[in-house]
Amino acid sequence: MTLVIENAQIVLPDRVVEGALCLEDGRITDIREGAGAPDGAGQVIDAEGDWLIPGCIDLHGDDIEFEIGALGPRAGTLRMPVELGLIQSDKNAAAWGITTKLHAIAYFEDEAKNRSKRLSRQIMDAIRDHAAAGRLLVEHWVDLRYEVTADPAYTLEAMAHPVVRMISVMDHTPGEGQFADLESYKALNRQLTDADDDELERLVAEKQARAHLKTAHEALVAARAHELGLIIASHDDNSAARAEAWYALGGRLSEMPVRLEAAERAHALGMFVSMAGPNLLRGGSASGNLNLIEALAVGALDAICSDYYPPALVCGAFKLVQDGHIPDLFDAIRLVSSGPAAALGLTDRGAIAPGLRGDLAQVSTRLGHPVVRRTFLAGDLVYEDRRFEKTPTNRC
């Protein structure tokens, strides 16, 4: 089937052109700069001057846990069916131009009582089954999260699940890394659970007592990842030494480093560096750690992830241009498209170019902020917002 999207501001890897984009059988075939749909074109969509960007690729988002009630203000008391949570998360992704989504699935059996091995398995099975049945709007994978002080047995087995593409190794030991401030660790766990002070003290003591196991656990998980061909991501790196240690273990991605020296060293070693979009939208880290703009300023940022807020990809990229941190929109869009694609080793998507898969998002800024009007997966229209009428051309 032939599809043409005309009257669009097409965001290419190195420039923006006005014109039409042609697709056939789910692939981009032609970019018609300064022209409309060719004679005899099949389906034609008028973009009305909107931006046309590559579909966003989300390296790390745990919003599905909020959708099923595992996290949030009523966590555990109003648990929703996993299938409904997946469908809602899928819709949220499509509505914000995310065409490839990695769900950050975690379990802390003895910590956040609402994350468990059973729940993580249910989510992974639901993704597998719904994808196989063609019931999802966008492409879904799993970024399996492993806490280094936990027993690795379940993780080593779960890594073989067919929807797992990446393993993120986290160290949330109280008093270290992201939680160098012990009180911030306790405060977060009060939000996630109904634990009282005595329970929190017990939790802190147990995790600190297992800290000596971290090095051995990391080596086991890294070896299993290599065996399965999974991407290894380190999480919350807090020093250059930590980045070097993960690089030596085969780490390819540094997720949300908490110190600038860690981001710079990871990038210098050739690792990809991703940071959370909410950090950008809020103007800084919720935990007082590295500001995304600091990493960007020294050239140590390759990708933006949603973390828990799907709008953060599109909105974050446009904000970087609006606030003057990046002069050109095409450079900002790389952080949510070709950058994440490279980190995942995906060569069939992440940019608008002939031969690549037609994963696209049509974005309007006429409301004063980005809104996704249409999302396409492999050339298929999977989401459409019809609230708009023809209005003057966008301005970034």
Structure overview:
The protein has 14 helices and 16 strands. The two termini are 32 Å apart. It has helices at residues 63-67, 82-95, 117-132, 153-158, 182-192, 197-209, 214-228, 240-248, 260-269, 277-282, 292-297, 312-322, 329-334, 338-344, and strands at 2-11, 16-24, 27-33, 43-46, 51-54, 56-61, 98-105, 139-147, 164-170, 231-235, 253-255, 272-276, 303-305, 360-364, 371-377, 380-384. Helix 8 runs parallel beside helix 9. Helix content is 34%, strand content 24%. The protein is of the alpha/beta class and 396 residues long. It has 2 domains: 2-53 and 351-384, Roll (Urease, subunit C, domain 1), CATH 2.30.40.10; 56-344, TIM Barrel (Alpha-Beta Barrel). The strands form 2 sheets. Strands 1, 2, 3, 4, 5, 14, 15 and 16 form an 8-stranded mixed beta sheet that branches.
